[in-house]
Design a protein that fits this description.
The chain is an alpha+beta fold. It is built from eight helices and 14 strands.
Length: 409
């Protein structure tokens, strides 16, 4: 046990002398093992804070000590001040092990690292996709919103990009961030999808009304989907996927076009899948009725309407949505091709189209089957009509012969 006594010099502001006693408890290694420390020595500052309370005044002093060696039995004492007017002595007790202080320091460092990483990731950019009509007049939409129109950077003509808010802080191709700014974007597709970027909930209806004036074929129920884009300038890679979000180093107009194209196709495809599901359910009910009664009562006109609906849905998915057309921006830049491919896999566009195609084949098979039944019914009707006419002709001929015979007699 070593005792170190430090007698402080007189402090003018206190006008009193005091004595501070530090007691450090240590265990000395045996001489034979003093020089066996071959591992690197790590210096960690240990800060001990104690308070001196004098009559009428209170002062807080901080002292830092550096441990030069790792000693398991090294102890740092906490200070409990007990100062009287006659004897100005500070007593030290309640030993605290160095490992406890080390753990606290490590926890503090981890918290600081977490805070630093959290500040590196900027707030997320909300992305909302809507589908409430089957067609939008893009030309008239651009004419009435020329000040918000963003010139296209590719040959794609089935969509337009409109920018609203503070255009001075709008992201550019150089890598400015969209999150945290007042600028928002709206991507409108000719087949009826709308994708909003960085738009708050209470502003969504206002932007949808801008497009509603130029839309046709409004749907009774609007489809909606949500997604997130996060910006992290310190990201080691260009992009990183997550659960219902994608993280990028920065967001610009090309990224908005790429992400908007996939989300617009996804929300529109969801509508067409539900349309085909309705037809599948209808044919399922017909087949169950045929299973019980052995016949069905569908009119020929209704069947033709289902045929037209199935064919138009398939044509819209392939032609209007351009589901198998690669984005021009993805062709030009590999970074956006990576985003395009990742989002297509994330939203399972290929798998969903295959499922849609399989259901349409089921509908087509049922339509062909029912058409054959209706054709057979028509053939049977014509056959019976011919039989009746032949029978009527025979009766007329027999009557004519009998009438002539009676006249001759």
């Amino acid at each position: 046990m070593k005792s170190v006594t430090a007698i402080s010099s007189s402090i003018p502001c206190l006008n009193k002398a005091f004595r501070t006693l530090f007691t450090l408890s240590t265990t000395t290694n045996p001489p034979a093992f003093r020089n066996l420390h071959t591992s690197p020595i790590r210096y960690r500052p240990i800060t001990v804070t104690f308070s001196l309370i004098l009559p009428g005044q209170s002062h807080s002093l901080n002292h830092s000590f550096v441990s030069s060696r790792k000693k398991p039995n090294f102890a740092v004492s906490k200070c409990l001040s007990s100062i009287s007017s006659s004897a100005h002595t500070v007593d030290w007790n309640d030993a605290v092990s160095c490992s406890e202080i080390g753990e606290e320091a490590l926890e503090q460092e981890e918290d600081e690292d977490d805070d630093a990483s959290a500040t590196a990731v900027k707030p997320y950019i909300p992305v909302r996709a809507f589908f409430f009509s089957t067609s939008v007049d893009l030309r008239s939409l651009v004419e009435q919103n020329k000040q918000n129109f963003v010139p296209p950077s590719s040959r794609m003509t089935n969509y337009v990009v409109l920018r609203f808010g503070d255009t001075k802080k709008a992201p550019s191709a150089l890598g400015a961030n969209l999150s945290g700014s007042d600028c928002c974007y709206m991507v409108v597709f000719q087949y009826g999808s709308i994708v909003l970027f960085n738009v708050s909930d209470h502003e969504v209806d206002g932007y949808l009304k801008i497009v509603e004036r130029h839309a046709s074929g409004l749907l009774p129920e609007m489809r909606k989907d949500e997604y997130e884009v996060r910006e992290k300038p310190t990201l080691s890679t260009w992009m990183q996927g997550g659960l219902d979000y994608i993280m990028l180093q920065y967001m610009n107009v090309d990224g908005i076009r790429t992400i908007g194209s996939v989300l617009g196709q996804s929300i529109a495809l969801d509508y067409y899948v539900r349309q085909v599901d309705g037809m599948v359910a209808e044919f399922t009910d017909i087949n169950r009725g045929m299973e019980k009664t052995g016949t069905f009562t569908m009119e020929r006109k209704k069947l033709f309407q289902l045929v037209g609906k199935a064919n138009s849905n398939l044509a819209d998915v392939i032609l209007k949505l351009g589901l198998f057309e690669r984005s021009d921006i993805a062709w030009k830049d590999a970074k956006y091709a990576q985003i395009w491919e990742y989002l297509r896999d994330e939203f399972e566009l290929t798998q969903r189209f295959q499922s849609l195609d399989f259901k349409l084949k089921f509908v087509e098979h049922n339509i062909r089957f029912l058409q054959e039944i209706l054709q057979n019914r028509k053939s049977d009707f014509l056959e019976w009509l011919i039989i009746i006419l032949i029978g009527a002709e025979i009766l007329i001929s027999v009557y004519d012969i009998a009438h002539k015979s009676s006249i001759a007699l």
